[in-house]
Amino acid sequence: MINVNEPCKNPLNPNCPNEDIVVYIQIGQERYPICCQCWAELAESNAEWNETGLKTEEKQCLTTQD
Of 25, 63, 66, 26, which is closest to residue 42 (Cα–Cα)? Predict the structure, then answer.
């Protein structure tokens, strides 16, 4: 279920103030709400995520510890 009052928590854009959540990504045990703008940017990029983090060609964000 999408919470309309939840702020975006894009690990690659941690200062995003948007609350128009359109999708969640799962990284490890954490669920990250992603807004429409960040999702569009991630979709156009070569972003990859798995159980340890999220990365693009420009940035890498490890969100869990091994």
Answer: 25
